[in-house]
Amino acid sequence: MQLSCNPKRTFNLNSMTNTTTSVSDVETHMEWRLRAAACTRTEGNPFELDETVLERTKKSAPPLHETAIWKKVIPDNVWTYHDRHLLHDTFVRYDRAEQPREKSNEVDQVNELVSDYEVYGYREDAQPPIAIPDPQDLNASSVKGLSGYHRKSARNNLPLKQSLYPYDVYTFDSPYWERVARNVTNHHGNPQLKQKWTDYRSEVVNAVAANIIPQEENAISKFVELIAADKPATTRKKIKAHAFKQCGVYPNFRTYNPKGTGTGTIHEFVCGELGLPKMGFEGRTDNDAQAIKEQGYIIYASDRGDALRAWGSGINKAMRWGIPTWIFGYSNKRIDDLIAWRENFIEEFESFKETQIQFAHSVAEAWVNEECTEEYNSFDVFDLVSSVDEVSFPIKLAGFFPQHTSRNVNDGGRPTENGLVDVYGKTITFDPKGDCLTLTQP
Fold first, then answer.
1. Among the residues of 172-322, which ranges form H helices?
2. Environment class of 359 (CB within 10 Å of its CB; exposed 0-12, middle 13-18, buried 19+)
3. 328 near 285, Cβ under 8 Å?
4. 415 pLDDT above the threshold of 70
5. pLDDT digits over 332-354, tens only?
6. What is the mean pLDDT of the segment spanning 291-318?
7. Between the CA atoms of 144, 145, 146 and 152, what dihedral angle is there, to the nearest 10 degrees?
8. 197-209 helix and 175-184 helix, angle to the nearest 10 degrees
9. How far apart are alpha carbons 337 and 253 in whole angstroms?
């Protein structure tokens, strides 16, 4: 029997994103099976893979769409599964230009795979690579591999090449989801070539260059959250930062790292950009905190207006050293409505302030003469707050870190918010002897 492709059986390249495609055709499946049946132990199939093995793998290594990570990032309505098939390498094409790294050049890793294949053969618990209909080939039986690039390289380096291999075949409704799926599938097992953060960055840059995602911050951020969903938040942040830079994208929302002293940290902004003393009081408590007293105030940054640490430490130090604490507000994550968030921050600040005043009033009752107790307890919250001397109240809100930084590429990427800002993003000057921002805003 001659095994050849039928040149008359083609599909429309524009319909490749549909769920009913050539990969579901009976003729396509027959062609794949005939080619697989022609392989022998010494010619293309030393692992002796067949339909029996294929069926066993569906239990030992279920399709990726049944995994938690796939369900987390890929919606059900953007893909269709066309079953697991044994495909000969002649039907599978890999696009070298789309690889975020040159996997076949990872000599040590590929050699490790070769050794693994030589010792164990095909691991039935290893996740098969996935493939889609090949949009660049009119042959209806041809597919494009989205994963398994380095495994194919290793199989071709065996003493007897293993040309037959299981693939899970899918169709997706856009190249966008193909890219996302490819990165999800890069977490197979035994052994595996792990993705580095630089590989994800390259994936983003390639996707932007191919017009799969727009060259703008929100699109890049969303894409990174999907393709690197199993990575720590710090790693995803690093991927985004480098992708923005390489793609010439200016982020429109600035975040701050509360740890460390380098670029992008709270310390760098407070001490470097604002030129203020470092936050807290560390290293300045000798001689009854003389250095802090000479400084005249303490600074804390907080992502909540009612943060216990900032308030508790501020009140404690105010009582011990007679100096005020200034709180700088910032959001620790992207906020769509920054003004509303800042207004809520002030509400939290004011509410906590009222609670502290009520607490002080309750404690002070012990020193009130009995004949004055009824009058003392008659004050409501408004009366108590109104009676407070705002000048001497020790906890004050200085303002907010600049975060809404929509940038203009034609203006060197200059941000719209600079320095310390008020609720509405207007630059203000920090005055350690000035008024609390809550007295005038919102």
1. 175-184, 197-209, 217-227, 233-247, 266-267, 286-295, 308-321
2. exposed
3. no
4. no
5. 887 778 889 999 999 999 888 88
6. 85
7. -160
8. 170
9. 11
Residues 140-187 have pLDDT tens digits of: 899 999 988 888 888 988 999 999 999 999 999 999 999 999 888 764
d(CA 403, CA 197): 25
Q: What are 39's two structure tokens? A: 């392989």
Q: Which helix (H) or strand (E) holds 144?
A: strand 143-145
What are phi and psi for residue 187, nearest 5 degrees?
Answer: -115, 55
How many Cβ atoms from other residues are within 10 Å of residue 43's Cβ?
12
CA distance 395 to 436: 8
Question: Rounded distance, CA 281 to CA 300, Å?
Answer: 10
Closest CA to 311 of 322, 327, 323: 327
70 vs 171: CA distance, rounded Å? 15
Give the Cα separation of 218 and 42 in Å (integer).
52
Task: Give the lowest-confidence range in 57-61, 111-115, 357-361, 425-429.
Answer: 357-361
Which of 172, 265, 255 is CA-nearest to residue 217?
A: 255
CA 27 from chain centre, in angstroms, equals 43
Helix (H) / strand (E) containing 84: strand 79-88
Q: Name residue 180's amino acid.
A: V
Q: Could you give the strand order of the β-sheet that contains 143-145, starting from the edge strand earlier in sequence?
A: 79-88, 164-172, 130-133, 143-145, 92-93
Q: Please report where in the chains the tokens 């071709």 appear, as a residue.
A: 156
Percent of the chain with pLDDT strictly greater than 90: 33
Which residue type occupies 266? I
- Give, in order, the Cα–Cα distances in Å from 113 to each of 110, 117, 125, 151: 5, 6, 15, 7
CA pair distance 154, 165, nearest whole angstrom: 12
- The string of DSSP letters for 189-200 reads -SS--PPPHHHH
| Nearby residues of 222 by Cβ (< 8 Å), 6 or more positions away | none
HSE, side-chain direction, 13 A CA sphere, residue 78: 14
d(CA 106, CA 193): 9
CA distance to 53, 111, 427, per residue, from 42 (Å): 18, 21, 75
Query: Are the C-beta atoms of 281 and 293 separated by less than 8 Å?
Result: no
